[in-house]
Every structure is written in structure tokens, then in C-alpha cells.
Amino acid sequence: MHIKAPYSITDCRRFFAQPATARQRQYEALRAFFVEGLRSGDAARRFGYSPGAFRVLCHAFRRGQLPDFFATARTGPREQPKKSRAQEQIVALRKRNYSVYEISQALAQQGTPLSATAVREVLAQEGFAPLPRRRDDERPIRVGPHPEPVANVHDFILAPREFTTRVGGLFLFVPDLVRFDVNGLATGARLPGSGMIPAGHALRASLALKLWSIERKSHVMALVADEGLALFCGLNAVPKKSTILLTNDRSSTPSKIIARYARRMLIENALSDAVRFFHIDALSSSVGFKVDFDMALLVVASGLYRLMANRMRGYSDAQARQIFRDLVDMPADVAITEREITVRFHRRAHLPIVLASGLIDKPVAIPWWQGRALRLVK
């Protein structure tokens, strides 16, 4: 930082003798008259006033009509309203062993938001030391995330109950799945399955994602707690995201196999980008794609949408996206009884088309529902 040279004595004297501003000139002239005892005319002449103007200035000064010559610095507020309002609550929560972050969250829920830093400052002013690192059982009990059940066909129980599902439109496809014997398709195609998730159930779970326009299996997590989606599959819960690597390479280490699989995922992502942006799967493309399980699901889902379109008045030539938006993407109330399962769709603009499709009030026995019937009702 540059340090200026000190003012000379002459410059300092000139500061008082030759004021640079009008307010300072008034002050120095009045001081010379009232303190130093100069005559009115001499004080007026020294500071550039006419005798009459200086007498008016003295008259105004005697009656307190002049503004203050010296400004008083105004200090800021010594209290912070937000901290003051929340101080008692912060102390009470700390006495219940809440951390600064937990206190901040609690205050936000009560409508008096305060950052964790501000909470920490209040606690420091009140003499509270930081909390030592705590075990889970020492933390306050509060509502938090809970694990969802693991998909297991043996835990699939059709106990009488009622619930609302976001994926009510999926049940429009169930009669056709029964007619085409989806369990037989899974067995005939030798699709993989397990004791917990048989092949037919796994096929319905994968097919549900296609029918509901879910791009990737990982995106099912948004619907993981929906009972309707699990009921459609015939499971107690929707299968969660998992990764299984099948290989016949017995010589490589697991780390090398995983690294090779990761590089393969980069290639698949590049192909996916090429499909989306460059449309290499279009008819004009010279690249041929292998028909795999995902493409087979696409064919099945597309066929189910075409069957539905033929049932719905005015939708025979509609694309799957429009059919999903108008007819499939709708919630429903599900009621499970001892004899049947009823699905009642919520009212929407296109619901009359569904009600006139011929699917309503026609019970269909569902093999993967322990023989209970599905009945779509008004």
C-alpha cells in the first residue's frame, strides 16, 4: 500500500483558514466570531461573507436553525432479528442433543429458517461447545428414509385392502397379457429367472417399464413404492436396480472383468447417443442393430399398444406416445377382495373413451394373482 507524504504545516493551516466547502466555511466563520472574538465585519471579510449575510448566518446559528456541522456515524443494528427470534428454540433443541444441521432443519420446518452457520454462532454466544461425534443410537429419533422390501414372489400376499396407484393405466394391458400367456412366452424363450423372481414375473416387470415409457431400469426408483406396479408384476415389490455380470472368462480377475464391462458401457452409451442424435437406427442408416431382449420387449410393448389403439375410438392410427399420454398415464383406485381385484380409474378428459372400449366390467382371471379376477369398473 502506497504511503503518502505528510502534509506541511502551511497546508494544515490553510485547511482551517481557507475552507474548501460551504459548511466548513460557515463553521470557521462562526468560530472566529464567537470563540476568537473577531468583530463581525472582520470575520465576514476573512471568510468571504458580506456584512449583512454574516449577520443573517449568526442569527440563524443562535436560533438553532442551521443543520449539524458534524455528522454522527450511525452504527448498525446490534441485534439480528432472525437469531433473536430463534434463540430460545435453538437452545432448547441443543439441550435435546440436536446438531447444528438438525437444528437448522427443524427451524426451517417451523417457518423460521436459519442457516447452520447462524445456529452455530448463537450456540457459541450461549456457551455451548460443539457436539462430539455421535453414534447412530445417540442421535435424535426423527422421520427418515426407510428401506423398501426386496422383490420376492413368496412374499406376494393379496390381503384385502385398498390403495391408490399412479400406474392405473397399466391394468388396461393385463387382459391381453393373459390372452397371450405371458408366462408361457417367458418359459418358451428360456428367459432367466430365480426362485424369488421367476421368469414370467421378471418379464412383466421389464415389460411394465416399456409400457410406462420409462427409459432405463434405474428410473423405476421413482415408482419403487407404488403397490400398483408391484401388483401388475405379481410381486410384493418392484425389482430394484441391480447389476449381474455373466462371463465365461475363468482366467481374468474380477477387477479386470469389471473394467472391461465399464469400457463396454462407454461404447453402448456412444451407440445410444448415435441413435438419439444421428438416427442410425432409421431406415436410411447402413448400420444394422442386433435384435436382443430389449428390442424384443419393444416389439411386445408396441404390439400391446396397437391392440389397445384398435379398441379405443379415434386412436387406431395414433402413436404410442399419444396413447400413453391420453389413455394410459392415469391413476386409479385399487380394491383387493377375497374373490377379485377391482380397478377404478380417476376421472380425466379421455376417460369416456376407455369406458367405451369394451374392457369395463368384464372379469378376467389372472394366473399370477392366485386365480383372482381383474375387473375394471366405472
How does the SSE layout of this entry go?
Blueprint: H1 9-17, H2 22-34, H3 40-46, H4 51-62, H5 81-95, H6 100-109, H7 116-125, E1 161-165, H8 174-179, H9 182-188, H10 199-211, H11 227-233, H12 254-278, H13 293-311, H14 320-328, E2 332-336, E3 340-345, H15 351-355, E4 364-365, E5 373-377
Helix pairs in contact: 2-3, 3-4, 5-7, 6-7, 9-10, 10-11, 10-13
Task: Characterise this structure.
The structure is a single chain. The chain has 378 residues and is an alpha+beta fold. The chain has three domains: 9-62, Arc Repressor Mutant, subunit A (Orthogonal Bundle); 86-138; 153-242 and 291-377, no CATH class. It is 44% helix and 6% strand. It has helices spanning 9-17, 22-34, 40-46, 51-62, 81-95, 100-109, 116-125, 174-179, 182-188, 199-211, 227-233, 254-278, 293-311, 320-328, 351-355; strands at 161-165, 332-336, 340-345, 364-365, 373-377. It has a five-stranded mixed beta sheet. A hairpin with a 3-residue loop joins strand 2 and strand 3. Helix 2 (22-34) runs antiparallel to helix 3 (40-46), helix 5 crosses helix 7 (116-125) and helix 10 packs across helix 11. It is elongated.
Q: Helices and strands, in N-to-C order?
A: HHHHHHHEHHHHHHHEEHEE
Question: What share of residues is helical?
Answer: 40-55%
How many discrete structural domains?
Answer: 3
Question: What's the alpha carbon Rg, rounded to whole Å?
Answer: 41 Å
Strand order of the largest sheet: 1-2-3-5-4
Structural class: alpha+beta
In whole angstroms, the N-to-C terminal distance is 83 Å
Give the overall form: elongated
Oligomeric state of the chains in view:
single chain
Number of strands: 5
Discrete helix count: 15
The main pleated sheet reads as:
5 strands, mixed
Strand percent estimate:
5-15%
The poorly predicted ranges are 283-291
Mean model confidence by pLDDT: 83
